[in-house]
Amino acid sequence: MIKLAPSILSADFSRLAESVREVEEAGCEYLHIDVMDGHFVPNLTFGPVVIKSIRKKSEMVFDCHLMIENADLYLEEFAKAGADIITVHQEACTHLHRTIHRIKELGCKAGVSLNPATDLSTLEYILPDIDMVLIMSVNPGFGGQSFIPQSIQKIKRLKENIEEKGYKIDIQVDGGVTAQNIAEIVDAGANILVAGSSIFGKEDVGVAVRQLRAAVVR
Ligand code: DX5
Ligand code: ZN
Fold first, then answer.
1. Is residue 46 a contact partner of residue 18, using CB atoms and an 8 Å limit?
2. Residue 206 annotated as part of some ligand binding site
3. In terms of pTM, does the model score above 0.85?
4. Tens digits of residue pLDDT in 65-98
5. Residue nearest to atom 4 of ligand 1 (CA)
6. Active-site residues: which are they?
7. Atom number of ligand 1 nearest to Cα 65
8. 116-158, pLDDT tens digit by residue?
9. pLDDT at residue 97, as a whole number
10. First CA to last CA across the chain, in angstroms?
11. Is 143 annotated as a binding residue?
12. In the 3-class helix/strand/coil scheme, how is the chain assigned residue by residue?
């Protein structure tokens, strides 16, 4: 079963709680929360304060994608704010192994994300310790970009590697996921699909969610 993770980056922040309720009612399993620091990526979003306030409004799995430097300094705050999954970037963590174990100590699931140009081999020695790999299929920082086609090959290779080793690791894909390409992404091996503009960018969130799910089945 695939899981949908609507990214609130594309939501209307003047009615954030309502938007979150809409995707929850539409049956989306995860809420994807994009945290940006203006250093690791050229954009700024929000931090634990916002997460804490929407936590009271939703039972969804809070999937926090940290696009920040010095993540170690903030992990505890994100966990306390209500994160269920904390994903950090391989490129932004000098002591990735330590960071992952700290996330788990805090009671969260640990994910590691790779930028489009980062090789899968960078994860070889930490794969046994993580719960999820997030393959970025756009350069992180903004919603509404086009899916980078080489990502398909990367997802396939990762899936093969995980199966070969017998690990239980989710493969999440983030960036440019649409009803047109979601089937190919799932066929390649992804099981958690982030969708910003193809859910929150649509007039009717419920219809958008149904279209994405129907496209996977076809
Ligand atoms: C980009 C973010 C994504 C973004 C995806 O840096 O990590 O989660 O919101 O947006 P879409 O689905 O519009 O590409
Ligand atoms: Zn994201």
1. no
2. no
3. yes
4. 999 999 999 999 999 999 999 999 999 999 999 9
5. 143
6. 34, 174
7. 7
8. 999 999 999 999 999 999 999 999 999 999 999 999 999 999 9
9. 98
10. 14
11. yes
12. CCEEEEEHHHCCHHHHHHHHHHHHHCCCCEEEEEEEECCCCCCECCCHHHHHHHHCCCCCEEEEEEECCCHHHCHHHHHHHCCCEEEEEHHHCCCHHHHHHHHHHCCCEEEEEECCCCCHHHHCCCHHHCCEEEEECCCCCCCCCCCCCCHHHHHHHHHHHHHHHCCCCEEEEECCCCCCCHHHHHHHCCCEEEECCCCCCCCCHHHHHHHHHHHHHC
For ligand 2, the distance from its centroid to the CA atom of residue 5, given in whole angstroms, is 9
Cα–Cα distance for residue pair 186/173, rounded to 1 Å: 9
- In short, whether 108's Cβ falls inside 6 Å of ligand 1 is no
